[in-house]
Amino acid sequence: MNVLEIRDLSVDYLSGGGAVHAVADVSLDLRRGEILGLAGESGSGKSTLANAVARLLRPPAAITSGSVVYRRQDGSSEDVLALGRKELRAFRWKELAVVFQSAMNALNPVSTVGAQIDDVLRIHRPGMSRNDRAERAAELLQRVGISADRRRAYPHELSGGMRQRAAIAIALALNPEVIIMDEPTTALDVVVQRDILHEIRALREEYGFAVVFITHDLSLLMEISDRIAIMYAGRVVETGGARAIHTSPRHPYTLGLLRSFPRLHGPREQLLGIPGTPPDLRSLPPGCAFHPRCGKAMAECSSELPALDGDVACLLNGGRGLEDAS
Asked: pTM, whole model, 2 decimals?
């Protein structure tokens, strides 16, 4: 059962030089309790999509079309994009929470981490006593691997990994159904990265929330995700199970991303990467936006814009994997 249904969502950044089409006609489903990975190069529209879903965009960004339907377990539903200010305030944190990319910037530097958890509880659960809120804050910090006595610490007194854990604790305060994690392990060393990923999986199993996990590191998503969506130039170009994406990528861009990180086993190979650079979103090339960088492009690719047919947006025939990337 889906908990979130994104349909034909488009976002533009308006400027004097013309509109930047950051997200174009994206449709995605998030199933209840799953981890959906969202991957792509910088500028592909991942964070803009997440901010649009959470209604966190500010001018000059504007949602130009689409819907984001949230479905509750009792069968009721609502379009997040149609919520008024009061309804949106109640929706955030309680139903959907966000863990931002840089915890040092996301956390309030002049407030302790315990006080920041207390703020969420005090506003959204006014019936809770002060002692109950303090106990809940201590419980949440301990659950993400931080000693309860650190709730009186300020963000600058915590390490990068601990700050990220504190941000996750705040997101969990009201037991939301959906948590959007926007590159939560960026700038962390690989050991701390692995600890954070293990913690996210364990928390998902315990609380049952669904996760949208955003990163440019496709190898990271292979480890944590149930399904993966690949974005390029503001569009979703491929979706599928993590194993299927790894072993049988169907879009040339996905294959390029897979070839951009080293294998841990087998003979040494040269990293190929993807030639060229991402396109200017103000003036996309005609047809498939990836065709100027694609080694498998056909003549039709420069004139026909492929739709996401099933699970891939590519004009290559056959519906088979381009090449075994395992």
From this structure: 0.92
